[in-house]
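Researcher: I'd like a candidate sequence for this fold, 296 residues long. If you have to choose between options at a position, lean toward the conservative one.
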């Protein structure tokens, strides 16, 4: 009997595919996980036990960094956030929702504008101007398809797990198919009545890319921000958090407090007005404890 460690890269009909130093091992989880109400997730670092007959069992889950999404991916170090220029239409509000959600989850994000070739130059210029602000506050931004195809594999560090995220129909599976030609992910058309894509990804699977892994996940139709604590929301807006060091009052919520640096920068046009508007909308959503109907 021997023990080996590896990363869960897929879940198929109750079996876990674990990539180890010796290759991929298909294994089942021990019943102890059901008793503890635990379930291994794709991305988990695990220990497997292989007996003398070649039978293998998943016996231990290593401590997780995080666990995000449904179905879940564990130990995500970075998100490649795919936001479409059109079909579905570009939305700063949706972009902010994703960025705040992942900031809350302590996961770094890189933005990729998909379908940029499907809109006219004036509209693209307008979108790029908005995205330049996000680049300024610290988010890497890609607006060129060839750049993202070449550079993303170079950015994924050893054993890192990156995941694609974005609304349904934004082009995540199409991008994955180009990044990893043997992925063969299904792609789907847009539902014009809802201005959103049809879900084409049904499961989570990790694909080897660069020195680490890239995961494709089912598209998000909505993100629930209500579990975020209201007084902590402002800390997930990176430029608000930086500016708050100069606020007159500690714990300033950037509403009507005197000596607020965030409001000062907003008035000077140094903070994007749509960001502050989205901040206020998220505060209302969290205080009411429900996602707005139009975002469901």
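Model: Candidate sequence:
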């Amino acid at each position: 009997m021997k023990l080996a460690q590896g990363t869960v890269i897929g879940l198929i009909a109750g079996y876990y595919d674990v990539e180890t130093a010796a290759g991929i091992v298909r294994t089942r989880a021990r019943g102890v996980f059901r008793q503890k109400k635990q379930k291994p997730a794709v991305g988990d670092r695990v220990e497997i036990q292989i007996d003398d007959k070649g039978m293998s069992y998943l016996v231990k889950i290593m401590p997780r960094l995080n666990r995000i999404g449904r179905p879940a991916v564990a130990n995500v170090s970075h998100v490649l956030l795919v936001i479409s220029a059109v079909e579905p239409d570009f939305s700063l509000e949706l972009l902010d929702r994703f960025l705040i959600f992942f900031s809350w989850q302590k996961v770094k994000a890189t933005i990729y504008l998909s379908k940029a070739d499907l809109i006219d130059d004036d509209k693209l210029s307008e979108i790029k101007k908005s995205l330049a602000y996000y680049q300024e506050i610290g988010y890497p931004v890609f607006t060129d398809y060839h750049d993202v195809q070449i550079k993303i594999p170079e950015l994924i560090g050893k054993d890192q797990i990156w995941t694609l995220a974005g609304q349904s129909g934004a082009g995540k599976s199409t991008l994955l198919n180009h990044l990893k030609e043997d992925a063969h992910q299904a792609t789907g058309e847009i539902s014009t009545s809802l201005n959103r894509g049809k879900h084409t990804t049904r499961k989570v699977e990790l694909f080897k890319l660069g020195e680490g892994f890239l995961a494709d996940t089912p598209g998000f139709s909505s993100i629930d921000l209500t579990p975020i604590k209201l007084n902590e929301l402002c800390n997930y807006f990176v430029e608000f958090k930086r500016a708050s060091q100069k606020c007159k009052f500690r714990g300033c919520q950037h509403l009507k407090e005197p000596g607020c640096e965030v409001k000062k920068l907003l008035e000077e046009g140094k903070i994007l007005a749509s960001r502050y508007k989205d901040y206020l909308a998220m505060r209302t959503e969290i205080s009411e404890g429900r996602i707005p109907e139009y975002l469901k």
